[in-house]
Amino acid sequence: MSKYLVWTLLAVMLLACVVVAEDQPSSVMAGILTRDGIGARAIALGTSFTALADDTTAGYYNPAGLAFLPGIRTGGMYESKFDPSLGINFQYMSATYMIDSLDLGTGLTLVRRNDKAIPTIGGSFDASETLLLLSGGWDFAQSLELDGFDGLAVGANVKVYLSSGYEDANARGIGMDLSALFLYDIGRGWIRIGFRSSDVFGSSIQWRDTRNEIKEVVPWGQHIGIAFSLLEPALTATADATVFLGQPDLNSLHVGVEYTLFGISMRAGFKDGTPVIGAGIRALDWLRVDLAMVFHGDLGQSLIASTEFSF
């Protein structure tokens, strides 16, 4: 199979996603967990991580990136959103495993958001949202021995949505992501191009135990990213564009830059116009610790801490 045929197939897939998505009905603001972002490193880069996807958050941003994560990795995050007195916190836990004989990377990710003491008439209530991702990424350029590629992978997520809210209402839903990731070595650096089609055809979330049965639709999004390094591994720049056809208010642009020296990384970016900063340190070959802060103006700041272990 020639590399030109591969590029043609990928272009047709992208065009098909865009054309079909144009026919999707307007969606409600559902599935916010899929747009908040996870991981202090990725968030400090403005969540422009579709093309990087090179740590345990890959299943969330681009499951094709799992095809290039060796060994076993585990990671997690804690985030206090906005003013701590609001009682909004956000966590994720994940694990990845590479099946070398198949050039297949696998991952399991659990994302959870809790909102405490939301005011209502006569009192308050707690709400939670949970997202479970079962992910896989396959480097078929390696498996099929394609010439002209340093790495070309496809990936997919099966995702489960679980929510609870006012008066013991609860919701369930299921969805799917499809993605691709291309790697190219340019000598003293590299270029990565990523694409993810999230919640393909729109993921339905059905609420129950409410006065009126409510069906929400997580909008179908198209995420295109590029990342490049010219002084590997010192300087990395990233950019993502996200488009939700039929939901222009959700369209966004994300950019970030990372500079690494002696295992210490400094990062800064913009998440759809919101400034973010962060830092990280690889204390040992098997441990990385990252911090990030998102500035929300009058709403305060979000503080994020995450770790990753490699085995």
CATH-assigned homologous superfamily: Outer membrane protein transport protein (OMPP1/FadL/TodX)
What is the third-level CATH name, the topology? Porin
Distance between the termini: 35 Å
> How many E strands?
16
Q: Mean pLDDT score, rounded?
A: 84
TL;DR?
The chain contains five helices and 16 strands. It is mostly beta strands and 311 residues long.
Can you describe what's shown?
This protein has 311 residues and is mainly β. It has a single domain, classed as Beta Barrel (Porin), CATH 2.40.160.60. The chain contains 5 helices and 16 strands. Strands 1-2-3-4-5-6-7-10-11-12-13-14-15-16 form a 14-stranded antiparallel beta barrel. The longest helix has 20 residues.
Question: How would you summarize the topology of this molecule?
Answer:
Layout lengths: L2 H20 L10 H4 L3 H5 L13 H4 L10 E9 L7 E12 L4 E17 L2 E17 H4 L7 E14 L5 E16 L4 E9 L4 E6 L5 E5 L2 E9 L5 E9 L8 E10 L2 E8 L2 E11 L2 E9 L5 E10 L1
Antiparallel strand pairs: 1-2, 1-16, 2-3, 3-4, 4-5, 5-6, 6-7, 6-8, 7-10, 8-9, 10-11, 11-12, 12-13, 13-14, 14-15, 15-16
Q: Tags for this entry?
A:
12% helix; Porin; 5 helices; 55% strand; mainly beta
